[in-house]
Amino acid sequence: MENHTNIGIGAERTREIADRVEAFVRNVVVPYEQDSRRDHHDTPTDELVTEMRGKARAAGVLTPHILADGSHLSQRETAIVLQRTGLSPLGPLACNTAAPDEGNMYLLGKVGSDDIKARFLKQLVDGDARSAFFMTEPASENGAGSDPSMMLTTCRLDGNHWVIDGRKAFITGAQGAKVGIVMAKGDAGASMFLVDLPDPAITIEHVPNTIDSSMPGGHATVRIENLRVSADQMLGQPGEGFKYAQIRLAPARLSHCMRWYGACVRADEIAADYANRRQAFGKTLIDHEGVGFMLAENLIDLKQAELMIDWCAAVLDTGALGTAESSMAKVAVSEALMRIADRCVQVMGGSGVTSDTIVEQVFREIRAFRIYDGPTEVHKWSLAKKIKRDWKARQ
Predict the structure, then answer these.
(1) pLDDT over 70 (residue 9)
(2) Closest C-alpha among 248, 374, 309, 263 to residue 75
(3) What are 236-272's pLDDT values in tens digits?
(4) How confident is the model at residue 317 (pLDDT cuts 50, 70, 90)?
(5) Which of 216, 238, 260 is the last residue of a domain?
(6) Same domain assignment for residues 82 and 201
(7) Is residue 126 assigned to a domain?
(8) Count of beta carbons in the 10 Å neighbourhood of residue 220
(9) Taking the C-alpha atoms of 368, 374, 379 and 385 in order, what is their torsion angle to the nearest 10 degrees?
(10) Are residues 264 and 337 in the same domain?
């Protein structure tokens, strides 16, 4: 997998990390794709994840975007490394760069107190725990989704503790997580709290079967009743939850783009190999214009996605919040990757819809990616509002 992006001063170091990650994913992780250790939702079990992480730790590629001294690669550097972890749907799990953990580590590293970093962040960076981010709420109750201001989960101060009540939905990784970041609204506004999991006050009501199957713990509906959280477990200050959500979400959207870009690179490799080997009507499929053109369009979409990721990462590296830029990247990249995954299935015909290769899984995962971290339409609506604000400012 080649990447010719100019990544600046840390280029040599980043390429060395990325090359080690790619070798590990291709040689060690890919064989695990046929491993039967899956739950009834077809997601990898914690046993499987733990085994892969042990091998990643031994190979020196566990949490590769966070260095031994605790410093973090730049977003442009992170992009190159996370793209390599994404070459297998299991790669981010094995290398500890998967959602929601990667985004949660980023947030705690930026905002967490020393105590929170020692108690909660360290176990995540070490790959010893999974985490969950409790923000989205059930649509049936008209709770927070793409519009977090609709949050219904409440928090109130009681002595030296906060008491939290509410319900959450589509909480990725909640089942089996050891660290939770819970968002709730109080008199000062929305706040975030760190909690140890499991906790008897947090009950998993339902884990639905979903189109994707790459994230352990699924996407649970959760009830929170009389959860008591020590005041020192609040992240930052009261009422700053929405600000912290933006700190997390802009890079997290981009990280999804990075990882699934890698998956589509691999899917395209598999489809191209098939097209160059399979014979039909007297010649290989690649020599049929309809197939060859689909693979050519894949190359174009992959390059455009790569450049969009790098551009957005460069904006975030300036220290800008990057909300609009991450929205543009999320839309452009997720839609491009959907086209790529669809073409890969089409090129491979019947083979493309079987589990004999990862192509059909990549198709399913990318379809889900177009929804989570904000559906395409919500990001377009947000960008349209920005266009209107900018227009008014010029009048």
Answers:
(1) no
(2) 309
(3) 999 999 999 989 988 999 999 999 999 999 999 999 9
(4) very high
(5) 238
(6) no
(7) no
(8) 24
(9) 160
(10) yes
Tell me, yes or no, whether 246 and 218 share the same domain.
no
CA distance 56 to 33: 16
Cα 360 versus chain centre, distance: 19
Query: pLDDT (tens digit, 9 = 90+) per residue, 87-106?
Result: 999 999 999 999 999 999 99
Token pair recorded at residue 315 = 């904006």
Backbone angles phi, psi at 233, to 5 degrees: -100, 5
Place 24 in a pLDDT band, splitting at 50, 70 and 90.
very high
Task: Please tell me whether the peptide bond between 198 and the residue prior to it is cis, using omega within 30 degrees of 0.
Answer: yes
Backbone torsion region of residue 363, taken as left when φ is above 0, otherwise alpha when ψ lies between -120 and 50, otherwise beta: alpha
Residue 148: predicted pLDDT: 86
Output the pLDDT for position 240: 95
Task: Say if CB 175 and CB 208 are below 8 A apart.
Answer: no
264 and 382 part of one domain: yes
Taking residue 324's Cβ as centre, other Cβ atoms within 10 Å add up to 19
Q: Which pTM value belongs to this model?
A: 0.94
**Number of independent structural domains in the chain:** 3
* Residue 23 domain boundaries: 8-98
Please report whether residue 273 resides in a domain.
yes
Q: Which of 238, 270, 303 is the last residue of a domain?
A: 238
φ, ψ for residue 140, nearest 5 deg: -65, -20
